[in-house]
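Hello,

Following up on my earlier ticket. Below are the two sequence lines again, exactly as submitted.
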Amino acid sequence: MIPTSYYLLLSAILFGLGTVAFVFKRNIITIFMSIELMLNAVNLAFVAFSQSLGKPDGEVFVLFVIIVAAAEAAVGLGIIILTARNRRSLNVENVNLLKL
Amino acid sequence: MPILEHLWIIPLLPLLGSAINGLLGWNWPNKLVHSVALGATGLSFLCALEAVREFFANGQQLFRKEFFTWITAGNFRAGFDLQFDQLTVVMVLVVTGVGFLIHIYSTGYMAHEEGYFRFFSYLNLFMFFMLILVLAANYVLLFVGWEGVGLCSYLLIGFYFLRKSASDAGKKAFIVNRIGDFGFMLGMFLLFRTFHTLDFTALFAQAGPLPSETMGQFGVLTVACILLFVGATGKSAQLPLYVWLPDAMEGPTPVSALIHAATMVTAGVYVVARSHVLFLHAPTALYIVAIIGCATAFFAATIGLVQSDIKKVLAYSTVSQLGYMFLGCGVGAFSAGIFHLMTHAFFKALLFLSAGSVIHALGGQQDMWKMGGLASKIKVTFWCMLFATIAIAGFFPFAAFFSKDAILFAAFNSETSGKALYAVGLLAAILTSFYMFRLIWLTFFGKPRYDEHKVHVHESPLNMTVPLMVLAFLSLTGGWFALPALFGGKDYFSEFLSPVLGGEALTIPNAHELELKLSVVAMLAAAVGLVIAWRMYAKDVKEGKSEGLHKLLYNKYYVDELYNAVIVAPLMWISRNLLWKVVDVGVIDGTVNGIASGTTAIGDKVRHTQSGNTRSYAVWVLIGAVVVFSIIFWPLLHPALVGGMR
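Thanks for your patience. The regenerated structure is below:
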């Protein structure tokens, strides 16, 4: 059996990649995808623990996370579409109406 | 209903009158207003008479009742406790009796003034506090009355508050009294610390058996007595705190008569007499009282010699006579002091009310150099004022002859520089006689110095003259309690007060003979003053130029200017340059403004984080998440880290 630490390491790498992309990418859709990446990295950690501890709690959490991610995708993509229509751009640097 | 059991009703009636007039009377007709005020005071007087009757029926036993507890803290208790003894009898009758007469007089004198209801409301309130003062059975309640009469004095001096001089005089009276009251409070604290009670009966019972402190020793009792006396010098206008009383003449004349002559200013004498048990244990304090009293009697009399304002003369005369009372108390003759307090209440109230009548007749003129020749035009006023003048000068058989002689006699026999005190007192008596007859001549004799075409001189209405006549009668007869003493009999007044104040057992050979001799000397002194005044003012005189000594006296020894320069001006300087410009502007405003500008400055720096750059926000979110998780997991990580480092 593959040790739990391997799963956790993979989860951490995915989460790190997501974080880096979240901070450095300019395209809103890419940022959105990096958030999804982070969520799924966490999901991976959850199921890894669930397996190693032999308890279903982690899997239940994962289901919740997927549900929330789906809702978030619906709302988030809606916002992105509206932004793209109003700004004619998907560059996050252009979304700066609140700037001084 | 026995009044003694319900003693609270005597002060409560004027309080009710004050509240009714003060709250509802603003649009009432004058008649209704003064009916309420007179009714309250008159009923109070009747209740006082009934209380006195019951007091005598009970065989003159000290009556004392605790009505309710006001303050308790630890072993300290201050209650609304009233008491009734011989001293109270004198004070209550003087306050309510003279007060009632002055209320009647005011209905005439104030008839055409604005704020009629306000005047009577204040006057009734004053009666309430004064009665609390004299009926109180402990120092705390006495102090309530003491402060209350101060408040009413302030309100009534500043009655014409639109006039700047009046409102200034009110403030001056209040502030000068504060200084005295500070001493009074310290005295109370010291007494409480020493005896753990401020109740008269309990306190004096504890202090009575203590050994008397010696001359020159400043023990607890001496210091406490001196502090109480500081309070008395404020309230009773003695050196060095007398300066407010002459200015207090800015108030309406009935106020000068009631508060600043007959009743309130005598509160200091009352307190000293009430605390005589303490004072008798503190010869140093008594000596100070005697010296201050004697010095004030002389000092104020000299200023009174040359004043031109009729009320100012009477004001300095009041200060001087109060000095006599303290002199009497200071040489241990407390009953003589109280005796003079009573007779003074009669003749000085009469003098002020007569002066008010003169001022009324001349349509507001107070300058004696613009009077003259009034004797035939306002006869009743003239005769009443003459009675009062003879009384204050001390001619037989008028009131002050007996009371002033009792004081001078006691001073003469005092062991502590008695002869000197007597000599100064006698000199002051000459001056008293002089300035009073000067006033009579300038006001009532000679050619009129006012414009006879413009001023319509008229006698005052009956409601003003009747109180004058009653007081004139009292000024004549008020001293007759001591009349038998002249013929070798008893002095009924001091005998009456002896259960409270103790009898002065004089062991002087030929005491009676000596007293007679001193009486003759005092009469001669009064006559000397009369003759000098007659020689100087019986002819037609004009106001001369003021130079030399006259100028010094006329300007009251420049005491006001001195106080201004030494106390007021430095205080103002400190207030302006230190308290205002440094403490207020620098420290207080500086702190407040500093906090505001500091917040702005921090905001200026921090707002650059709001760059509008979404990705930098993302970084902040990340940093925040890391910090929060670090805090949450620190307890878990910590031992591991520490362990790892080991």
